[in-house]
């Protein structure tokens, strides 16, 4: 009798733990499925709402640079997203190229070089950049940055003009793709820095001590032990920052002049991004025009999804290689 009672008492907590594990597992599974359902719902909404404009479009939607979806009855409806997609990807790439090396340097300084108090303060300041509204970045870029960069742009055009990217003439307003890319770089800097800092701090101490014990300097230890270990995290942070740059709206809309051209020249006015174009055109759009903007949003959704899938693939391959 005593043995039976004691066994039942011992089994009760196990039953409760099993029930808790079951509830937690189902809740986690439901949360994961909910994310997939939301993503699928957004995709279906974009496809359904853009069908009317895609069927009425008489130009090549992916290559045309014209945008006139609200023509008069009987007129040819022509619009495309080639120039907008080009500008979107170009601005994000500029931001990524500028922000990633700086973010890695800041993360390494915070984790391995800065004194503890300075590291905490600097980490707080970098994280605070993410809390600044995008419209503030847009005002800073439009009023201050575009004017202050004019001498630098003229220098690039004069001495590096033989490179097509920096060929003149330089825009007199400074509202160029390079200016937009610099503002986006500042905006995504805290994202890449935060993820790089976390992954650098998780490098096993045994790896670092082994490199130092073999006579490596601090930089050599970072190069052979820290950077290889943290590369997947850095790539993931960079792609996450690029996703933010691809979808940024207000800052880019305030800096770039509205235009529909495909221009590889970074110092000239031209190009526009999908998100900025939607924000500028939507208040006055009606009918087919709204559907056309939603179709452009569908293209942006596909670009962002492709970038994130590529990032996951690269990170998983690097993890397998490391293991």
Automatic annotation (TrEMBL):
Family annotation (PROSITE patterns): ABC_TM1
Ranges where the ABC transmembrane type-1 domain occurs: 85-311
Annotated compartments: Cell membrane
Keyword match Chloroplast: no
Keywords: Cell membrane, Membrane, Phosphate transport, Transmembrane, Transmembrane helix, Transport
UniProt signal peptide: none
Job of this protein: Part of the binding-protein-dependent transport system for phosphate; probably responsible for the translocation of the substrate across the membrane.
Family affiliation: Belongs to the binding-protein-dependent transport system permease family. CysTW subfamily.
Name of the protein in its database record: Phosphate transport system permease protein
Highest classification ranks of the organism: Bacteria, Bacillati, Actinomycetota, Actinomycetes, Streptosporangiales
């Amino acid at each position: 009798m005593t043995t039976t009672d004691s066994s039942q008492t011992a089994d009760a907590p196990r039953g409760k733990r099993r029930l808790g594990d079951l509830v937690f597992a189902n809740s986690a599974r439901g949360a994961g499925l909910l994310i997939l359902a939301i993503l699928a719902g957004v995709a279906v909404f974009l496809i359904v709402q853009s069908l009317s404009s895609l069927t009425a479009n008489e130009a090549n939607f992916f290559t045309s640079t014209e945008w006139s979806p609200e023509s008069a009855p009987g007129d040819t409806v022509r619009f495309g997203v080639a120039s907008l997609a080009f500008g979107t990807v170009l601005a994000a790439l500029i931001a990524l190229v500028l922000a990633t090396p700086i973010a890695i340097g800041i993360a390494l300084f915070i984790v391995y070089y800065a004194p503890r108090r300075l590291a905490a303060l600097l980490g707080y300041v970098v994280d605070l950049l993410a809390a600044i509204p995008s419209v503030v970045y847009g005002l800073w870029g439009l009023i201050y940055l575009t004017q202050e960069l004019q001498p630098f742009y003229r220098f690039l055009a004069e001495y590096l003009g033989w490179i097509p990217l920096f060929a003149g003439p330089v825009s007199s307003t400074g509202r160029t793709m390079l200016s937009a890319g610099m503002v986006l770089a500042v905006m995504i800097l805290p994202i890449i820095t935060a993820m790089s800092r976390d992954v650098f701090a998780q490098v096993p101490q045994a790896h670092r001590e082994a490199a130092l014990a073999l006579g490596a300097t601090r930089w050599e230890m970072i190069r052979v032990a820290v950077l290889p270990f943290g590369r997947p995290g850095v790539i993931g942070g960079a792609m996450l920052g690029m996703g933010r740059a691809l979808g940024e709206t207000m800052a880019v809309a305030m800096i770039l002049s509205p235009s529909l051209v495909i221009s590889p020249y970074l110092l000239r006015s031209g190009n526009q991004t999908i998100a900025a174009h939607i924000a500028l055109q939507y208040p006055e759009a009606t009918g087919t025009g709204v559907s056309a903007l939603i179709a452009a949003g569908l293209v942006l959704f596909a670009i962002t999804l492709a970038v994130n899938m590529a990032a996951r693939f690269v990170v998983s391959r690097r993890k397998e290689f490391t293991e």
